[in-house]
Design goal:
The structure is a single chain. 44% of the residues lie in helices and 20% in strands. The protein is an alpha/beta fold. It has 2 domains: 185 residues, Isopropylmalate Dehydrogenase (3-Layer(aba) Sandwich), CATH 3.40.718; 136 residues, Isopropylmalate Dehydrogenase (3-Layer(aba) Sandwich), CATH 3.40.718.10. α1 links the parallel β1 and β2. The longest helix has 18 residues. It is globular, with a radius of gyration of 20 Å. It starts with a strand and ends with a helix. The chain binds 3-isopropylmalic acid and magnesium ion (MG). The site of 3-isopropylmalic acid has 5 residues, from α5.
């Protein structure tokens, strides 16, 4: 059987880290009765350069007809410093999320023993840190009405949610809590925002069907503090789009390297998998970027979309072995480091050994 994977390398270090993930997937495909077939498509700044559109029609078609999507990164500094730019790479990402209905962004945060010394937090705080954030991805202030008024002297963005948007991601988060430590924390700003009060109402209702799950409510400012001071307290965090964007970046530094965290964006029919580190343009083309988060994202993909949980575990183990053996890029160890492709080769080889 063939699984069609849409490969969207995107911008910056996207193409380099993607190459390493594909290397690893090819080893898996060789050993399995499931074969992977890849279709490359443009997105982000590279799509603007070649097609004048950050999410062009042929990319849409390739995504729609695939079984899963692997995505590298999006963004180019030339747009960041131009507030008047008419088209932006990020618009392509937001359109893609909406178009494919990727409503739940799932970001696991856990510490690796060999990385603990690189975390800015104290060792004792890092013990037993293992939580997962469910961030709503197609609603809220990102997609509400926005505009510019009074000849450019005034601008507005609106945060809107309806109950069904909250319910569908809440059910995913509660189901995950059942499989884990049965604790769910809703992060909101219900002391100020009406959308947050709607979130609380919906979560309170759904929680009646999950009597085994303990539900906590935290205001986002307080949550931002607790993620740093007490990260091991969390199990499943559920939150809306913008709060999720902010706290997941915050959470990523706990682990010691931004280059380690994969994520899944889950939709009704199709899901997309991407590292959370972004396009890191300063490193692009230098063969120095950490490919682990991209490789771990491909592991999440085969586990989630192709039911290959055994192979997913093998990839995770190979990455862990690379860390333990010090086969890492310079973001992790400045004194002794390997190139992007060397780390990818080592992990692919290790997967090959483990799977035999
Ligand atoms: C993310 C990113 C995006 C977001 C940007 C690039 C639009 O920060 O995936 O977290 O804000 O969602
Ligand atoms: Mg972000």
């Amino acid at each position: 059987m063939i699984k069609n994977i849409a490969v969207l390398e995107g911008d910056g270090i996207g193409p380099e880290v993607m190459k390493e993930a594909i290397k690893v997937l090819n080893i898996i495909s060789k050993k399995s009765s499931l074969k992977f077939s890849y279709s490359n498509a443009l997105v982000g700044a590279s799509a603007i350069n070649k097609k004048g559109n950050p999410f062009p029609k042929d990319t849409k078609d390739i995504c729609k007809s695939s079984d899963a999507i692997l995505f590298g990164a999006i963004g180019d500094p030339k747009y960041d410093n131009d507030p008047k730019a008419k088209i932006r790479p990020e618009d392509g990402l937001l359109e893609m999320r909406k178009f494919l209905g990727l409503y739940a962004n799932i970001r696991p945060v856990k510490t690796y023993k060999s990385l603990i010394e690189y975390s800015p937090l104290k060792n004792k705080i890092l013990k037993n840190v293992d939580f997962i954030v469910f961030r709503e991805l197609t609603g809220g202030i990102y997609f509400g009405k926005k505009g510019i008024l009074d000849d450019g002297n005034k601008a507005f963005d609106t945060c809107v949610y309806n109950k069904s948007e909250i319910e569908r991601i809440a059910v995913l988060a509660f189901d995950e809590a059942l499989k884990r430590n049965k604790k769910l924390t809703l992060v909101d700003k219900a002391n100020v925002l009406s959308t947050s009060r709607l979130w609380r109402e919906v979560i309170q209702n759904i929680s009646k069907n999950y009597s085994n799950v303990k539900v906590d409510y935290l205001f986002v400012d307080n949550a931002a503090m607790k993620i740093i001071s007490n990260p091991s307290d969390f199990d499943v965090i559920l939150t809306e789009n913008m709060f999720g964007d902010i706290i997941t970046d915050e959470a990523s530094v706990i682990t010691g390297s931004l280059g380690m965290l994969p994520s899944a964006s889950v939709g009704k029919d199709i899901s997309l998998f991407e590292p959370i580190h972004g396009s890191y343009p300063q490193a692009a083309g230098k063969n120095i970027a950490n490919p682990m988060a991209m490789i771990l994202s491909s592991a999440m993909m085969i586990g989630h979309s192709f039911n290959m949980s055994f192979e997913e575990r093998i990839i995770n183990r190979a990455v862990n072995d690379a860390l333990n053996k010090g086969i890492v890029t310079e973001d992790i160890n400045k004194n002794k480091f390997y190139k992007t492709n060397e780390v990818g080769d080592w992990i692919a080889n290790r997967v090959h050994q483990l799977i035999n």
